[in-house]
Amino acid sequence: MYEGETMPTDAVTAFLGALGPAHRQWVLGQPEGRQEELAAAWRAELRDDTDLDTYSELSPPAAADEAARRVVEAAGADRE
């Protein structure tokens, strides 16, 4: 389990696993509900973004990592 205040859901755990250390810490600092929203956005990004199809074909983990990075950056992780 990752260091954090609450036990993450399975979707949040998968999302955290796709993040680098700095972004993972940022997400863990968010309230549980926000973590779940970010994980849902990550899953939607993986499902809906056709640009990630190339990543998925070459390396599913690379697609998951890229989608996770996009979600946390859009959420403001790099602005704090």
Structure in words:
- This protein is mainly α and 80 residues long.
- It is built from five helices and no strands.
- It is globular.
Main attributes?
disordered N terminus, 80 residues
How do the helices and strands line up, and which of them pair or pack?
Blueprint: H1 10-17, H2 21-28, H3 32-48, H4 52-58, H5 60-74
Helix pairs in contact: 1-3, 3-5, 4-5
Structural class: mainly alpha
Bin the helical content.
Answer: 55-70%
Order of helices and strands: HHHHH
Distance from N terminus to C terminus (CA atoms, Å) equals: 25 Å
Mean pLDDT: 84
**What share of the residues does DSSP label as strand, in percent?**
under 5%
Separate helix tally = 5
The major β-sheet equals: none
Gross geometry: globular
Rg (CA only) = 12 Å
- Multimer state: single chain
Question: What can be said about this structure in brief?
Answer:
With 80 residues, this protein is mostly helical. It has five helices and no strands.
